[in-house]
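Input record (one chain):
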Amino acid sequence: MRNLTREGVFKNVSFDVRAGEIVALAGLVGAGHSEVARAIFGIDAVDGDEVRIAGRKLALGHPAAAVRAGLALVPEDRRAQGLAVELSIARNASLTVLGRLMRAGIGIGLAIGALNGALVTFGRVPSLVATLSTFYIVRGADYAWVHGGQINATSLPDAFASIATGSLFGVPNLVLIALVVLIALSVYLKQYRGGREHYAIGSNPEAARLAGIRVERRVMIGFLLSGAIAGLAGVLWLACFGTVDASTAKGIELQVVAAAVVGSVAISGGVETISGATLGALVLGVINIALVVLRVSPFWQQAIQGALIVGAIALDTLLARSVARRMMTKRDYG
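The corresponding structure, as predicted from the sequence alone:
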């Protein structure tokens, strides 16, 4: 740092900090040491400055730029200026990287969703085949990349775990995040044109195309949304459990399908509700917990999940045929 100046407060402050070093600014109250730290972080405006981090000049006056450069500020008066008073200094400092972790997870999910969408819309690959194929490709690549390694809680920022362990007004953060996502999706599907178009495409893609719906575009958006939500779920999973490896969540795809089908989501498309899928997931979770409490073998748990899928699909098919027959009878006989 060279010649950092704020008229009337401090003037020509210069020092160097190298890796592994600690520099202390000391002085009486009003000497300006706190103001120097605030100026470096971009909170207070300065009249003259040159601050470089790893050789690159830092644009002062913008705390966001300081955060992107890897800086964090612990204020002198944490009670008045601290971001999260109940958290430790280490956790407050590590809050600056949470946004990066979230964006990274969602970005990876978006990329995989785009790949799935391209396979379905342009390659005409059935969605079930496309998603299962990319699932195993990504998992295999993950195994090859990490070579059996894993991410431990000790290698994560201290504040990252607070996403899962924290709460607001007594409600866990994970529950609040899930509610926000579920409500937003429900409103989108029920109240907006794009959401209604998803239903139309699921019911009959050709009829939707004849009705003027841009089917390929809407399908791609659906896969992008799905990928982004999956990426967010991966980030929250890491925050919740703290330790993950390439085999994490292995077999959960069957549970997801079972929860959706039990929640009255039609495999053929066109029929679903967010609340139904949510209730299906909750019912399946309760069943799994009950099976564990009853000491049922894990192999039988998978068999029960498979039976639930078959039973739900069979029931859905029977109900659909019954409704179709009633409609045909009404049409023929009035």
